Amino acid sequence: MVPTLLSIGVIVFALTRFLPGGPIAALLGDKATDEAIARITAQYGFDKPLIIQFWKFINLALHGDLGESIAYRMPAMRLIGDRLPVTLTLTGLAVLIALAFAIPLAMVAASHQNRWPDFLIRGLFQIGLSSPIFYVGLLLLTVFAAGWRLFPVGGYGDTLPEKFYHLVLPALTLALSLSAVLMRSLRGAILAIMNAEFVDFARAKGLPPSSVLVRHILRNAVISTVTIVGLHIGELLGGAVITETVFAVPGVGRLMVDSIFARDYPVIQALTLCLALLVSLTFLATDLLHMALDPRIAR
Amino acid sequence: MSGAKASRLSATAIPAPLLIGAVFVTLMFACAAAPGLLAPYDPVAFDYSALLKPPSFAHPFGADNFGRDILSRTIYAARIDCQIAFFSTLAPLVIGSLIGLAAAYFGGWLDILLGRVIDLVLTFPFLVIVIAIVAVLGPGLVNMYVAVSIVGWVFYARLMRGEVLVQKQLDYVGAARVLGYGSARILFRHILPNAARPLLVYWVTDMALKILLGSSLGYLGLGAQPPEAEWGVLIADGKNFFTQAWWMTFFPGAAIVVAGLGFSLVGDGLADALDVKR
Amino acid sequence: MSLAPILSVKDLDVVFATPRGPLQAIDGVTLDVRPGEILGLVGESGSGKSVTLRAILRLLRGNAKIGGQIVFRGEHLILATERRMQQLRGASIGMIFQEPMTALNPVLTIGMQIEETLAAHGLREAKARRSRAIELLHQVGLPSPQDRLGGYPHEFSGGMRQRAMIAIALAASPSLLLADEPTTALDVTIQDQILKLLKRLTTELGMAMILVTHDLGVVAETCDRVSVMYAGRVAETAPVDVLFAAPRHAYTHALLRSAPGGGAPRAMLTPIAGQPPQLQAPAQGCAFAPRCEYSEARCLEGRPPMFALGPDQASACHARDRLPPWRAS
Fold first, then answer.
1. With a threshold of 0.90, does the pTM exceed it?
2. What number is the ipTM of this complex?
């Protein structure tokens, strides 16, 4: 994990140093007073050799100082800190809904392999895979927010229940997209488990079908699911970016897009590092979860 | 080997999904190649008498806030999305294949370096990297192709490397070397044709993915720029009117689904026909 | 020992519906097992031995159609409800598989896998289950059984895993054990141990066993009687020593001759010419006739019936009386 993060740090550092107009213009935008220029030159060491600059950069990053947002005039880290929980809640909800939706359907498809329920389910998810997230989001908005007025059009509430209420459609959108992505692998994994000999042995012992399902099939399926979800974290985050944009949810995804349009480089830089950290931590968490669930892996 | 491919496709009946996919793709190509013949109206013609009109006989897909016919705009937009499918994938295919081939065959530091780069790129959501690069370069279709190529070649390199490594172990390579064949000859005349099959399948499926990516960037305003008609841009045009005119977003979106579905079904069908594991 | 069989299979048919058409895996198999005896079921891969076992327990996949008659202790299994089959599985008829690494659930401990069987067949208290589990592990020869209960399959060696699988299968005290090639995946030395264990258990527990194998050596060592299968049909049934002394089916004859040691010392091995038949199109006559050096015209015309040759011996072969001795010496 550390080498990856370090490499990303190097890339981010290099990118901001080589932007047109130089790093000073990037970090201060057009509000560059002499005093501000002097301050950040000292802080980032622009008058010193590159190695010193990089060292200062890493040092500042480790202390949580990743510059000040040009557009919002507050520390980038604070901006991210406000918005990260929103994105985490959104993606967390989406994963739960996606699994609740995809695992049972994958089991149905696997147990009716190559018969019509299997073809129907796979066909539906194939269509889902070909549907861009923003389209799905807009369709849901049209039906549920505009047509039937069940959910708000976007934004984010103030109280906790309101917040969840606002997250329903975005989470559903992201979940539909994610389940389409997961479906193929889930179905394959469950098929392999259902055809495994230990399932036959369990039945040969006279275990009732419910026991076979829960103790034998599902327990192994959960382990495969953790691995599969871990593999698709990147797609999940990419989807979150678009979903937040469509539904105007104040998360880090939308912050990224807004910052890009606003040329708010400190935020872009900070976000890149944070997202890299987030993804690495997620991989780590997936590995740990896998280790906890699967006795075959050495502790 | 390639002779066997041709005879296998014609010997068995073409399965339904592959056929459907082929029809969809052909439809898309037809719209891209001859939009003037297929579209009933001029895509940029304003018509103040038809502002925000719902689907009707005169306007099968409805009309937008300037009275432009959505059907015609959707048909004309097919050309851009076709371009996106090809230009976003061609450079990654070529660059990635060459690098993957070299890394697998020659091994050593090149292979190790490639491995590190693959790990790095896989860590990050592809969309976010592309958006970030487009941010630096500025919005626009060409910049999008550049951004996708900068990162996208990694997937092709990984696939090619994997395939070549597998082929390298197979007996026929050892046999060829015993016969005295040189590295280049083994590589290009023997290993490559076998490794090409999974790559071809991946390329077709990737085109579906790039249409989705391209339209996402078009929607965000980072890809194709208005007034250029691209399906994602059309949807973005319609998003402000989704309460009054659902057809502005519905039909271009459906076009994306049809196009994406077409390429993925063709890709899956090819995988079956060429006996490639997915 | 009473002579009434504990299991009687008559004219068993199993047809699989595949995309390429129906596949007749079992074609009119008849055999029976007496209480406490070990019946060997021997044949090449694809002869239908494993399918027969699974058909008895109704463990075949959905696309299989079973016909014929399977009677276990007077009960018709093919007509039984699924609920009844569940009750019988494990408690009356047990089964062990070839590869213990894949037949044991990798994420459950051995103890859990034994105890769930006990729970499914009515043993309610956890303490009783635990002590029975320890007793079983001891019975199959696993050292320090209390410590083994919390172990996972991958922590055991191959032989120990197979012993654990046997313990699980015997947990609810079945009176018939179906063993599907239990030693094929093991080292030769471990094979021997497991076979001895199985033999001991059948005597100790008064249990009958059908031992499926492709290894004639295993049959010779372990079984009381043996049925030889070919292409989904029974070729010959006989007591073990009778079969090995003088086979009465051309296929058994060829099989014995083709095994190492079947001819004179240092003579070339005589394999059986040809390939086993495709099961999509069951043969009109004897399935082995095309490869048989003793076949006559009538062998290809109609299926030879099972000729009774003695109290425990039968052969479906027209050449049963003219087969030469198979051993060179």
1. no
2. 0.89
